[in-house]
Every structure is written in structure tokens, then in C-alpha cells.
What does this fold into?
Amino acid sequence: MNDATSLFLLRVMLTTRAIEERLIRLYHQGRIFGGVYTGFGQEASGAAVAAIAAPNDLFAPCIRNLSLHIGRGASPRDLFRQWLGRADGPTGGRDGNVHFGNLDHGVYAMISHLGAMISVVSGGVMARRYQGMDSVGFAFIGDGATSTGDFHEAVNFAAVREVPLMVVVENNHYAYSTPNASQFRCRNLVDKAAGYGIEGIALDGNDAIGLTEALAPVVADLREKPRTVLVEVDTMRMRGHGEHDDFSYVPRELLAAYAARDPLTVCREILLARGLIDPPGLEALEAEVQQAVDEAQQAAFRDPPPSPSTLLKGVYAGE
Amino acid sequence: MNDATSLFLLRVMLTTRAIEERLIRLYHQGRIFGGVYTGFGQEASGAAVAAIAAPNDLFAPCIRNLSLHIGRGASPRDLFRQWLGRADGPTGGRDGNVHFGNLDHGVYAMISHLGAMISVVSGGVMARRYQGMDSVGFAFIGDGATSTGDFHEAVNFAAVREVPLMVVVENNHYAYSTPNASQFRCRNLVDKAAGYGIEGIALDGNDAIGLTEALAPVVADLREKPRTVLVEVDTMRMRGHGEHDDFSYVPRELLAAYAARDPLTVCREILLARGLIDPPGLEALEAEVQQAVDEAQQAAFRDPPPSPSTLLKGVYAGE
Amino acid sequence: MPVNEITYLEGIRQGLQHTMQEDPDVILFGQDVGSFGGAFKVTTGFLEAFGAARVFNTPICESAMLGAAIGMASQGLKPVLEVQFADFATTAIHQLLNNAGTMHYRTGVAVPMTVRAPCGGGFGGGPFHSEELEAFFCHMPGIKVVYPAFPSDARSLLVAAIHDPNPVVFLENKYLYRHIKELVPEAIAPIRIGSARVCRSGQDAVVLTYGAMVHEAIQAAEHLAADMGYRVMVVDMRTLKPYDTDTVIATVAATNRVLIVHEGWHTCGFGAELAALVAEQAFHLLDAPVRRLTAPDCPVPFAPDLEKAYRPNAARIEEALVELLEY
Amino acid sequence: MPVNEITYLEGIRQGLQHTMQEDPDVILFGQDVGSFGGAFKVTTGFLEAFGAARVFNTPICESAMLGAAIGMASQGLKPVLEVQFADFATTAIHQLLNNAGTMHYRTGVAVPMTVRAPCGGGFGGGPFHSEELEAFFCHMPGIKVVYPAFPSDARSLLVAAIHDPNPVVFLENKYLYRHIKELVPEAIAPIRIGSARVCRSGQDAVVLTYGAMVHEAIQAAEHLAADMGYRVMVVDMRTLKPYDTDTVIATVAATNRVLIVHEGWHTCGFGAELAALVAEQAFHLLDAPVRRLTAPDCPVPFAPDLEKAYRPNAARIEEALVELLEY
Ligand SMILES: Cc1ncc(C[n+]2csc(CCOP(=O)(O)OP(=O)(O)O)c2C)c(N)n1
Ligand SMILES: Cc1ncc(C[n+]2csc(CCOP(=O)(O)OP(=O)(O)O)c2C)c(N)n1
Ligand SMILES: [Mg+2]
Ligand SMILES: [Mg+2]
It folds into this structure.
């Protein structure tokens, strides 16, 4: 892995964290309409995938994958516009919060129905390959969502068609309030891979550099020998399901254990240890990111909301 | 396994075969309304499950499991009434062909939507256990139907709740015209068990006696230590998907190989070898079964169809 | 008779609690309904009160949840299943339509199950947490559909739904959960599924509606009375399948002008059914064409201004009523 | 202009074949559509003609099939997906309603996909192979719904559906597949989605219908003309969303009496939508209440006598028309 990639990971994660911290504050200040859902503590996997992927690749992020959006080029201002329902945001205010994407960046806008997007990104990759493009798909999914029929149908279909697709299961141990033990009975979610006849890979989900190093060769190989793989990353949701949720059902020791392995801390330490950044450099980077987020937020607050007269625009294409 | 059980298996399978042979003939004579779907060549698993099960057990058969119905006490006359849409048949003519059951025998009437019944029988068992009954569930499913989201959701849910449920996957190598290779990428369907954290057992699906011997202890253990298990049985659909289908897409050598291991032949030979029946006894049994089927068919043809005036009866319960 | 003020949400809670206390056959399950009390906290304390055999969390699998409920109901239990948002029931329509809805007709086995489905918008939920799907459910043979607008009705109708021997979809309007309060007696009054509620009398026109729009319609009618002296009747359909055709016809006879309001989509919505019924059976009673005021055929938008334009409200009901009254 | 007699099924086949020949972006997939040619043999020879990259079988997974079609369409392909029976689409309503139907509205990305869904009864298919689900599909924002009744329309409308930049549900009536023939020219005439077909002129009443019931209605109208001299117009709606409101209003203006017929369920069916439209916009044109003749709210029964009682037919349409004409 080259140095630029390491710094890319750090910058993406810092930006993600700064945006989400801001969203959380705005929510508790009552300045956000609707709920706030973050990937606090889960920034590593999205950043790593963004680091590995190629321009023509396609992505189906879930609600905890802001870092993937950032890594694929979503601007902080677009992010705030989305959360504020602004006219020029990624969904023009038609959708809110995490339900956005940008196909120019290869990123599908998720629907809420868990599992439903895996087949979509898989179909997108099928299309691009039919069109002669080299394209690999990346689908993110939670531990809870592996229980959906959609997860199963999509992974099986992709496996059978040998779609180059990496399905990244982010096991953060809870689905809303429901712990793994009430969600599945296999020991690890990667145990499901064999049932689809695909390779399964289990990794530490809080180490972006480790993830990038481990997955880059896998993805390179997928491009040569198209097939579907299942990756389980171990991580932790460090906040509630949304900011309305005090997550008192999560044992505090569990949180503490993962706090000690916060993806930003882990990445910062590796970069410092490898001499890729020094403390003043880090401070400067963090300040720069904070400033960009400040400016983006302020700009987005000034951006106009959609006009009610546009309500019916675009229900159908070509009209 | 005691002698009565062996003879039970033979009688159930002979009856099943005789009924289905008759249905096939009636179809080609144009005397059946709608299609005809049989389990020709797959009689062993349903018979074995019927042999093992206890009175309070519950069952979700699929379209190829007539032997399960017969084993649980469905009468040939009821069968013909069902296929002929008669008023006094199991569904009173509201439904046709394989879509019937009898909860007095513990047998759910399937809907066509593949995979949908696994959760139903699982819920039935949950209810019976809540009511203090000892009850185990048996769900049958085809190789093709393992691709449905419903299969996945139901098996996972049952596994997590530790519902004593045996899911019997009958791998007959085709789903309509689609061979295994276009349906799943795992080597064996039993490979899926690990992904649900449950035990998987692969067996010869054409040997009713072997199945009974192998599964009886498993089921006994399920009663003690409730949990879900996955059983894959290897078998072959010896006719078309339905009688309208000439199944020319199935290699004839494959059919020949399974014909040599026809469940009835296998069972007959074991019983003869074990001295549990002799050739004249067998002949007598076959004649008896044929006569019962003849009479049942004739009676059913005389049975009245439902009156059109009953069309709306029972859309709602309690009205 | 002691009287308490309760919210709509509390009405649902009390109905469920009462039924579970009286009848051990009632079982509750769904995503996060256990110690967490469900996404909307309707079942807080139920796990503790009724135990893990009667109250449990499920994995995320709407189809298997519905299937399990069908299985339980077929064995004589009365399962109550919470789907976290009605929107997610669209992943398992076949279990309702084809399995639950046909079992009694096909086999004579009753399926006394209740599906609690929080629905409706008005709080920035966006396209996937705001849907009104009653038209789908009402189109399904063998299914009953209940949709209360008041705390008292929510309480009574949930009891009725649970004891009904059929599969019932019990729609809960999320906007009303904490917005609507009502004084209710201790004892739960029985309400028959199939009976509408005349919420406001009047003889100049009638608004046929349900869910959150009932309260918007009442407000519109009050404005109109104050501003222009019109007396507008408001009918809360309250149960949508079966629905109360007698009350519909009687109120049309009494008013001769009909406005139908709902926050679900227009084309093939429940409003179409009501309008068709009026057109077929009360044609001779009409002094003006029947009129529908509904959400447009458009995903539920997130941005507040867009959702305001999307969702009918008191002001737009009033406007439509004026046009109708001046026809 | 050379003219051939083709079946309804052949019309579909030709429309699909033509489009695939002209446009390499059209991809066909579904259960058994490959060398087997699909459950109804609509695509026999397509795999051989267009190759395995454009024609392929899928596992049994309606949701993933629909999702994949959405993904392909979002990348500019024009996937045509066959669900084996429309009934099975109920396992994946969310992919249509929430994913396909909202993508353009939410993100500006068009989803030009076509879902071919064989539907309807009349052949002993029973409750799970005979359903008419157009009301569900028509209730979905962002989705178009097409339902031809004639070979020529099937051919033209399938071409239109595939080229439409939106998700289109293309309903194929199974009973008509081999029962209906028509003389058609070699060249495929373009038909606009949203235009009805006046199949039979008349001025005493109009039957608004679609699918297999078009042919029953024509037969009923012919009987009535022969027996009683009535001239009954028959309109094949042909496309249900959008539907041709202009033609509906014009034919009501011309006849003043309306019968709506379909073989789908009654409550919240597409007939309710048509009746509501007529009641709202053509009230002053009516000499008699609008009337619906539909299947009852009941699973589709298997037994021939039951299904005959369930499904509207020429005789019952005639009866209803006589009542309407004599009102
Ligand atoms: C089909 C479906 N059912 C229910 C929900 C409601 N829901 C939203 S998020 C969530 C929990 C998801 O848990 P998990 O997949 O582990 O993701 P995490 O939130 O932990 O990242 C639930 C139940 C949904 N979105 N879709
Ligand atoms: C959800 C769903 N999709 C499609 C069908 C149509 N269909 C009926 S049987 C069948 C093939 C089933 O294959 P398999 O599960 O292997 O069972 P087998 O017929 O071989 O016993 C298909 C595709 C269906 N019944 N349900
Ligand atoms: Mg999780
Ligand atoms: Mg098979």
C-alpha cells in the first residue's frame, strides 16, 4: 500500500467523523428535520473499499457507510444539503438523511428495505460488464440485514452468475436493539459463504489500513476471475441506532473495548508509527477538515429548499 | 426399525405411485382439469418422514410429497376428490391438485409461492410447544426453492428460536427446466447448514428404509434438544415438472441411473432380502393397493362438484 | 366512571395489554418489541409483564414473521405481529395475500392473527417510512383492515382485531401516536369491525376519511363553520375492510355532497373505492360530483415544504369543501 | 401490406424479438426463459438467436431478479424480466414500489425496465396461478402498467414498454395467449402508452374494460345488438397507468351509461378507479349510476363451476348491461 492511500484513508475517515459529529450536534440542537443515523466507529470499511476500488466500480452503501460516500467524492456540502433536504442536494430534498448516492461516483442511493440494494448493485455490475467495462461491485450490509430474504437471494444470484461482487457484512453486533444472538445462530456471519459456494473472509473492521491491505489483492483477483465473495468485518456501532436512541441496551464495557480500537485512533497511530504523518501535520489536517466541514455546513444552511411547485417533477422519467 | 415400519413404507410408496400413475393417465386422457404434478421417483422421503413422525408433529409438504400425505392418513379418495375439485375434497374444490393438506393430520396445505410454508410450519410448532405439546415440524423444499428469500428467512428464524424443525431439501437436480448449476454455486445444499448454525445431513433420497433409519434418531434427539436441522436428500424427478412438460432437457442417462434406484424397487428389494415380505405377499399387496386406488378414483368421479352458490362461503372465518 | 386522558399510542398499548392479560393465547412478536419496547415504544414493559414465551424479538425477516404468525394462528393462538414500519410489509405481501388471506377459504382453518403496522407521514420520514398502504391491504380477499384515528377507537379496535378469527391488518398512524389525546373511560367499549364513526354532524356536506386526515377534516369543518356558517359532517371510516357502507350511504343521503380525503396515493387508492361506492349506490342522492382529495401519485417526499405540498391538510380540505359546497 | 394471423402469445413474442433485434441494450432474463423458452414458451429460440449474454435463466428469486433489473436499467440497459406468474411478483413488491418506482424521483436516474407478468384465470389455475394484480401495480407511483387484449396491441405495447424510460409492468393474460388471433401487418405500429382502444362503437352504453374481459364484453355487446338492438360501445383500456381519461370521458359523453368490467378483485380494484374518475369528472353526463362488474373479493377458486361463478363473462356482462340500459 502506498503512502497516498494511507493518507487518503485518514482524510476520508476524519472528514466522515467531522461531518457526523456535526450532524449529531445539529440533531440535538433541533436543527435537523427527521432522525440522524451515523456510522460513528464504523468508518474504516467504507474508506478501505473506496481506497481499493476503481473508477468504474459500483457501490451499495448502507446507513453506516458515510465514509464510502466521502471516499467516492461526495462533498461535505452535498452531505449537509442532503440532511437538510436542500434543492441542490443529491436527492433534491425528495429523500433525506442517509438515503442518497451519486451514480457519477458509482454509488447507488439506498432504499430503506434492508438487503434490497445488493441485487441492484449486482445488476449494475452485470450491465457494465455486458457493456464491456471492467467493473466490480461492493455491497455493504449489516448483521441484522443478513436475516432478510433479499440478502440471500441477491448473494446466491450473484454467486451463480459469477458477478464480481464483494459483499461486506459489517457485524456491529446489534440490529437496532437486537443483539447477534437473537439474529443468527451461526458463529460468524462468514460461515454463510460456504452455503453460496463462495469464499468468506473475516477481518478486523476497525483497521482501515489492515482492511485495505487484505482486500486489495482480493479485489484485484475478482477483476481477473469474476466471482462473488463475502467479507465479514467486526466492528461496533458506537452510538444509538439513531440519535433518538440512548442505546442503554448495549453493555458499556463492550463500547469501551471498541472505543479503545476506534478506527481513527488505529489509523492515526499506524500513520504516526510509519512516519507518514507527524503530530503537527495531523493537527493541520484535522483543522483543515474541520474548516471544510464548517464551511460546508454554513453553505448548506444558506442553500435553498426545494420549491413545493416541483413536487411532481420526475416521478416519471422522460416527462 | 421394526418390521411394521418397513411394510408401512412400502405400502405408502405403492399407494402413492399407484395414485400418481392414475393421475398421469387421467391427465393424458383429458379427464383432469388443470395440470398434473407428481413426485414420481421421490416417494421415499415423504414416506420416511411419515414413518418417523409422532401424532402431534406438523408438516409442510411440497408438490412432490404425496407420499407424506398418504403416510399421514390422506385417503386415495380424498386425493382424487382434490384433483377433481370435488365439494367434499380437502379444499372443497377451492384449490386444486397438490395444494391441499389436513391439519387433523398435522399437514399444512401449501401455497404455490416457493419457500413460504417453512415459516408457517415453524410457527405452528412454536404454537404447539407454547401450548405444552411435544411437536416437531417437517418442511420439504426443492433445490430450486432454496434460492428464495423465504427459505432463508424461515430457516434462520427457526434456527435462532431453536424450533424443532427438520427442513428436508429434496435435491432432484432440476427446478422446472433449470439445473442445479444455474441455481446455486455451493457443492451440496447441505453446505448451507453452517450458515444457519445448524446441523446438516446428506442422505440418499431414494432409500426409504435408509432414510428412516438415519433420521429416526435425529428426530428423537430434536424432541429432547429442540433445534433446527437441514437434511439434503439426493433424488430425481422422473417425469416433467408437470405432465405438460416432456422434460427433454434432462439427459436420459441421468434418468436411467435413477430409474435403477427407483424408491419402490429399492424398498421392495430390501424387504424381500430381509424376508419381511415374499413375492406372493408383494403381489397381493400391490393388487390390494391398485384396487383401493381404482375404487377411490371411481368414487371420486361420482362425488359432486361444489355448488357455485358456495363461491363466497368461508372467505372470512366466523361469518 | 373514572376517565383518563390518553394518547393514541397509549390507546394501542392499553388495548394490547388488556387483551394479553385476559387471554393467554395472545402472543406478541416483532423486531425490537422485547425489552426495547419497539421502535415506537408501544410495548415498553410487555416483556417484563408477560414473559419471554409471549413477547419476543425476531430477526429481520418480515416474510418469516408473517409465516410464523400464520402457523401460530392456525393452531389457535392469536399472534400479534409488529412490523416496524408498514412500508416494510411490502417485502412479504405474498404471505398476507396468498397465505393468510386464503387459508380459511381453502382449508377451513381460521387464522386469527393481527399485524400492527405503523404508517403515514407528516414527520419527515421520507419515501420509505411514511407510506400509506391501506389500498393494498384492502384489495386482499380474506384480510380485514382497521385504521383508527382516536385513542379510544385504537384501544377498542385493537381488542376487536385480536379477537377476530381472521387476519387483520391494524394500521397505526405514526403522526397521531403522540399528537392526539382523548378522555377515555377505564373500561374498553367494544367496537364492531365494520362500523364507521360520525365525528362531527352537519348537513351541508360530508367528508369521508380516516387516519390522520380525520383530525384535519374536523379542523377544516370547524373553520368553515366559523367563517362561512357551513355545517360539514365528518365521518371517520375507522375500519376499511369491511367498511361501513350503510353509514356512507346514510351520510350522503343527509348531505348530498361528498368529499373523500386520505393521505395515501390517488390512483386505485381507498378513496377510489369510496367514490365508486357512492357513485354506484348513492348517485341519485348527489347534488355535486363526488370528489377525492388525496396524496398525489408520487413517493412521499422528505423536505418539509415538499411533504406539506404532498399531504392533504386542513387548509386544502377547506378549499376543496368550499368548491364542493359552491358547486 | 402483407398480413399475418397471429396469436396473442405470438404478438408478445414478435414485439420482444423485434426489439431485441433492433436494440442490443435489451436483455431478457427470468426463470426458465432460456433454452426452455419460459413456462408459456414465449421465448422459444431466443437464447439461440441472441446468445447467453442477452438471454439467461435465473434462480428462483423474484426480489433479486427485480433488483438486478433495476441495477441494469440504471446503467442504461433495457432489461425485460419475466416472472413466471404475476402471482409470484407479490414476493417482491418492495423492489417495484420502493426501489424501481422511486429511483428517478429520488436521484434522477431513469429505470427503463419491463416486467412481463402472465396473469388472469379461466383455466383452472387456482388461487396462486390466476391472480389479477393490476390494482396493486397501478397504485405504485413511478410505475407504468400495460395490459393488452389483442395480438397487435400486445406486440406494439411491448415495444413501447421496453423503450419507455420507466419501469413498466406488462401484464399478459394467460387465457388469451392461445385463444385470441388477429390479422396484423408485418410492420409494428407504434402505440402510445396511455391510449385506450375503442373496440366497438355504440351510443347506448359503454363498457370500460381490459384483458380477457374485452372479448367477453364484445361478445355481450354483439348478443345485445342481435337480441335487443342496443348499440353498446366497448373500450379496451389497454394501458392502465397512465390510463386514457380523455377517451373515458368522451365515451361517457357519447353514451351516458357506463359499465366497468374486470376479472380482478372488487374492493380497491382498477374498476374503483375508473368509477371514481367517471363520478368525479363525468357526473353530469350520466343517465344512470356507473356500475362495476368484477370478480368478488375471494381467492380465485379452482373448480370449474366455482371459477365460472367467480369470473365475469359475456352472459353476466349482458345481464348487467340490460339492467344498466333499462335503468
Ligand atoms: C426489511 C426491513 N425491515 C425492517 C427495517 C427497519 N430497520 C431499519 S435498520 C434496522 C436494523 C438494522 O440492523 P443491521 O442490519 O445490523 O444494521 P446496523 O443498523 O447495525 O448498521 C431495522 C430493523 C428495515 N429497514 N427493512
Ligand atoms: C416464488 C415462486 N417463484 C416461482 C414459482 C414457479 N415455480 C413453481 S415450481 C418451480 C420450480 C421448483 O423447483 P424445485 O424447488 O427444485 O422443486 P421441484 O419442482 O424440483 O420439486 C417454479 C420456478 C413459484 N411457485 N414460486
Ligand atoms: Mg448491526
Ligand atoms: Mg428440484
Notes: The mean pLDDT of chain C is 97. The two ends of chain C are 46 Å apart (CA to CA). Chain C touches chain B at residues 27, 53, 56, 58-59, 61-77, 79, 91, 94-95, 98-99, 102-112, 141-142, 144, 164-166 (CB under 8 Å).
